[in-house]
Design brief:
Layout lengths: L3 E4 L2 E4 L10 H5 L2 E9 L2 E2 L2 H14 L8 H14 L5 E8 L19 E8 L7 H5 L1 E7 L14 H12 L4 E6 L2 E5 L3 E6 L2 E4 L10 H12 L3 E4 L4 H5 L3 E6 L3 E8 L2 E2 L7 H17 L2
Parallel strand pairs: 7-8, 7-14, 11-12
Antiparallel strand pairs: 1-2, 1-6, 3-4, 3-5, 5-6, 8-9, 10-11, 10-13, 13-14, 14-15
Helix pairs in contact: 6-8
Bound molecules: N-(5'-phosphopyridoxyl)-D-alanine (PDD).
């Protein structure tokens, strides 16, 4: 099926959508993005994604392409036009194109940002077989730039990380910097030991996951113990269980780290419970 996508004010068939070859997102990775999940035809955590987008734009001195209300309307239109029941909405804002290549930012008065959105249809997202099996992860060095709290489209290294994982027969990679786990290639990382959930605190070293915020709040509400601190891959390997969080996979149990099997090698009870609570609560508040 040909998707309807959104480019700078227009809804178009994906085959007709165009942006300039001089777009700075294309030439310089000068762009930020958001991925919002759709369940039951409704948007999960839209507010959180809109707030983080505004922050990413501000941190990079990039113009805001439209209001939050307009963004919500575009998301909803795309979900409706593409009949998405379960899936994702991808949004990207780049600094636009001034018709040439220059390292200096163009004048924001004359060069407007490029806004692109498209949907991805993912039937069965809430009940994915991967979440029932759990993921195997490997660890790799984190050699990304120092502002990982800004959600930029510089995803080459995370893509390479996924390929390294695949080559090792695993599903994903957790990255390590100065001896401590930062995050997964496209998710935040956690382990559980003696009932306590441990995850890295927020800083410029990791993306401030929207799912992370919700899951930690829900864990605390369910009287689970949460500790935000640096942790090593060895601690995670010796954990009772582990998991990741992201808008695209919600709470994903991790059953193996660098070949070390966690627990009995199946998704742990805390990860499973958090996934259930997160999906239940998200659906209640979906818009
Ligand atoms: N990735 N850390 C990184 C590096 C990420 O790329 C993501 C999300 C997260 C989790 O953030 P959130 O809970 O807001 O989705 C953490 C998205 C899903 C992606 O790139 O497709």
């Amino acid at each position: 099926m040909t998707r309807t996508v959104y480019v700078n004010g227009e809804y178009l068939p994906e085959t007709e959508a165009k942006i300039s070859i001089f777009d700075r997102g294309f030439l310089m990775a000068d762009a930020v993005y958001e991925v919002t999940s759709v369940l039951d035809g409704k948007l999960i955590d839209f507010e959180g994604h809109a707030v983080r987008l505004a922050r990413s734009l501000k941190e990079l001195d990039m113009q805001t392409p439209c209001t939050k209300e307009e963004l919500l309307e575009i998301h909803r239109q795309l979900v409706a036009k593409n009949d998405i029941v379960e899936g994702l909405v991808y949004l990207q804002v780049s600094r636009g194109s001034d018709g040439d290549r220059d390292f200096a930012f163009p004048d924001p008065e004359t060069t407007k940002p490029t806004l692109v959105l498209f949907t991805q249809n993912k039937p069965g997202l809430a009940n994915s077989p991967a979440s029932q099996k759990g993921a195997k992860v490997i660890s790799i060095d984190d050699i990304r730039w120092g502002r990982r709290d800004i959600k930029t489209v510089q995803l080459l290294y995370p893509s390479m990380g996924k390929m390294m994982a695949k080559a090792a027969g695993a599903d994903d990679a957790w990255m390590i910097e100065d001896g401590y786990v930062t995050e997964g290639t496209s998710n935040n990382a956690y382990f559980v030991k003696g009932g306590k959930i441990v995850t890295r605190p927020l800083s410029t070293d990791i993306l401030h996951g929207i799912t992370r915020t919700a899951v930690l709040r829900l864990a605390k509400e369910a009287q689970m113990e949460v500790e935000e601190r640096l942790f090593t891959i060895d601690e995670a390997k010796e954990a009772d269980e582990a998991f990741t969080t992201s808008a695209s996979a919600f709470v994903m149990p991790v059953v193996e780290i660098d070949g070390a099997v966690l627990g009995d090698g199946t998704p742990g009870p805390i990860a499973k419970r958090l996934r259930e609570i997160y999906l239940d609560e998200s659906l209640k508040h979906a818009i």
